[in-house]
Amino acid sequence: VAVAQTAASRATTLDALRQAIADFPHCDLRRGARNTVFADGNPAARVMIVGEAPGRDEDQQGLPFVGRAGQLLDRMFAAIGLARQSPDATRALYITNVMPWRPPSNREPTPEEMAMMVPFLQRHVELADPDLIVVMGNTPAQAVLRQRGITRLRGGWTQAWGKPVLPMLHPAYLLRNPIAKRETWADLLSLQAHLRG
Ligand code: URA
After folding, report:
1. Is the CB of 171 under 6 A from ligand 1?
2. What is this model's ipTM?
3. Total domain count for the chain?
4. Residue pair 163/46 in contact by the 8 Å Cβ criterion
């Protein structure tokens, strides 16, 4: 993990961080992945979303949240006027994952794999410097907040890495449990109020 901290801290721009991750050899997941998935959207966005890890579609395209869960994510945030493509930082999203490589058969990343990559995520947040962070699901809640149990964590704001953090349910969970979209709608309204605040 010290090697990760050193590599991450040396990067002083987002491009340098992307390169540092692409060159980082100390995570076994990279061997099974086709692409390193760094980020998508507008790096100047006020809102930075952190997901878990690339799935099959993301690994193929080299971009986060482009499969079914990603399409739901785009629709959710469009409902409060936010889009990853927006050139206007107040209406844009910047999207990344805890893990830049797809785990085999989409298993959850192990605590060791996460610990190795968290220094890069923390540096990513520092360099993008959003106004707030949305953590989607248990893996980013663990990485950023050091807590699991997203169904309990969601519903309020917390603080980490010097930023307000909004824990939300993962869109893949919402695809399996559409009834929970009610909770996500409440969280999106809370996010919108925060941005207007
Ligand atoms: N799920 C995630 O957590 N991240 C992605 O990029 C895609 C699916």
Report:
1. no
2. 0.93
3. 1
4. no
We report the CATH number of the domain holding residue 13 as: 3.40.470.10
- At residue 146, the pLDDT reads 97
Alpha-carbon distance 20 to 24, whole Å?
A: 6
**Overall average pLDDT of the 10-18 stretch:** 98
User: 81 pLDDT band (50/70/90 cuts)?
Assistant: very high
Q: Rounded to the nearest whole angstrom, what is the distance from the C-alpha of residue 57 to the centroid of ligand 1?
A: 9
Q: If 0-12 CB within 10 Å is exposed, 13-18 middle and 19+ buried, where does residue 181 land?
A: middle
- Intra-chain end-to-end CA distance of the chain, in Å: 38
For residue 65, give Cα distances in angstroms to 1, 79, 138, 164, 195.
Answer: 27, 17, 16, 22, 23
Rounded to whole angstroms, the Cα distance separating 84 from 100 reads 18
CA 81/CA 149 separation, integer angstroms? 28
- Residue 70: CB within 6 Å of ligand 1? yes
Domain housing 6: 2-196
CB 66 within 8 A of CB 35: no
Q: What is the pLDDT of residues 86-99, one digit of tens each?
A: 999 999 999 999 99
